[in-house]
Amino acid sequence: MTKYLVIQKSNIVTLAKRHMFLVLILLAIVFVSVSGFAWNEKTVTLNVDGQTQIVKTHLNSAEGILRDAKISLNPKDAILLSTASLENGTVVTVVRAFPVKVTVDGQAKTVMTVQTTAQGLADELGYKAPNYVPLEDGNTHLTSNSEVTIARVTSRSVKNYERPVEVQVIRERDDTMAIGQEELVQEGTAGVESVEEEVFYQDGKEIKRQILNHNEIKKMVPTIIKVGTREAVVETSRGTVRYREVLTMEASAYLPTDGDGRGITATGMVARRGVVAVDPDVIPLGSRLYIPGYGMAIAADTGGAILGNRIDLLMDTYSEAMEFGRQSIEVYILK
Predict the structure, then answer these.
(1) Phi-psi category of 199—alpha, beta or left, where left has phi over 0 and alpha has psi -120 to 50?
(2) 318: domain CATH number?
(3) Distance (Å, rounded) from C-alpha 140 to C-alpha 122?
(4) Following CA atoms 141, 145, 147, 150 in sequence, which dihedral angle do they give, to the nearest 10 degrees?
(5) Taking the CB of residue 165, how many other CB atoms lie within 10 A of it?
(6) What angle do CA 64, 70, 76 make, to 5 degrees?
(7) Which residues of the chain have pLDDT under 50?
(8) CA-closest candidate to residue 300, choices 325, 259, 271, 258
(9) Of 32, 140, 165, 333, whose CB is crowded by the most CB atoms within 10 A?
(10) Structural domain includes residue 11
């Protein structure tokens, strides 16, 4: 009897140990599952319709994440990932399909696509080379409501010829020159290149030409022009003033009583110091001027002998006019 009780107690202890072991295993499984679930959490950025949204998720498919974010997709929309697979930090971008009018063999239809080039759209629709070709440049960028014409190709040929390369004009900024000033640094010359061109035909009629490659025969030399970027200002007795152009002119002097003696200028202004006579084809009447050694002036008079880069300055006295005589001066046309 005593021996039986000992055996019974031993069985109970064994069962208890087994139960404890099973409980520990279950707890381990739960812990691993929970910790694994937490470890699998990732932060993903969604770019949709111009809006950015950051979400935390345990899902492993972009479609599922978008569905959870209540973002609907149209059949032709595309999903782009910034990484090879969905992971923490991935940027998910939804590219919305847009309508493009496509004409094939005279039949027009509107399709939805995310393709950005005419050739890409033609390929997507199954109109591939060498049997079909888009009549537009294959790299033409497509936008909503673009039009693409795809033609059937029945034959093609390759042509080789030479053509001139137009002179490129390079304008270099130069802050040592005033705004509006330019200086020719290098006179350009045209180049020559050989061209290999493919010509497409439909039933004997040419429908498109496409450059296959081109090689330089004679190098094009660009024209180089320095362009002033320094703000054009000049110091005067009234302070710093801005000017738009400076001209070197041949100057002479005259008196208010010259001409018909009435002392009235061609614009009706009273003749006085500060009024100058100009050729209106060179300096428009009414222009404000600054002349070093003379001062501020206004172009308000004309004269029969004042043609081209000639200017006549009104002086107060005969002796001042005689002393000035005739000389070359700089004339700043103010803004």
Answers:
(1) beta
(2) 2.40.40.10
(3) 12
(4) 90
(5) 16
(6) 70
(7) 1-7, 32-38
(8) 271
(9) 333
(10) no
